[in-house]
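Exercise 7. Given the encoded structure of a 155-residue chain, write a plausible sequence.
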């Protein structure tokens, strides 16, 4: 009887426990996709006569892919700044520049960073490009995203 009572109490406690929430599988940006974005953008820039740096981040702001080509070291830093800002704020750096909040950590205030979303609007990261005129940088990041089957805005 003494052994049955503790077993019964444990079984009853298990039945009374709330169910665990279901795990949600969120889409993530993988290394191959990040590399595809980087490579496509570098190729477009070279075709246009620009040397750029490209940085691709996941939605948490972790660097997945980076290439500098012949762009300056300063362009490399700016590309990383733009890409991380676009990833963590989920907004283009043209938009965050309009916020006029230059002292907010990680916020980029120069056009050339674009967020990355899946076709159904799930955020997966951001890409930053620097080394060409800022409008070209933003266009190049956008073309890289589209090449990889991603969007730069929610639907």
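Solution.
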């Amino acid at each position: 009887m003494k052994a049955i009572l503790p077993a019964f109490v444990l079984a009853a406690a298990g039945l009374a426990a709330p169910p665990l929430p279901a795990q949600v599988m969120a889409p993530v940006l993988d290394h191959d996709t990040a590399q595809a974005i980087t490579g496509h953008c570098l190729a477009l820039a070279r075709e246009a006569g620009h040397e750029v740096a490209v940085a691709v981040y996941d939605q948490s702001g972790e660097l997945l892919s980076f290439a500098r080509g012949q762009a300056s070291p300063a362009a490399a830093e700016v590309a990383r700044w733009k890409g991380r800002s676009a990833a963590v704020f989920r907004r283009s750096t043209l938009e965050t520049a309009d916020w006029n909040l230059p002292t907010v950590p990680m916020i980029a205030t120069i056009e050339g960073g674009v967020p990355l979303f899946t076709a159904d609007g799930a955020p997966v990261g951001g890409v930053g490009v620097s080394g060409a005129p800022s409008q070209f940088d933003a266009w190049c990041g956008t073309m890289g995203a589209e090449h990889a089957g991603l969007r730069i805005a929610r639907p």
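Remark. The longest helix spans residues 31-47. Students should compare their own answers with the one above.
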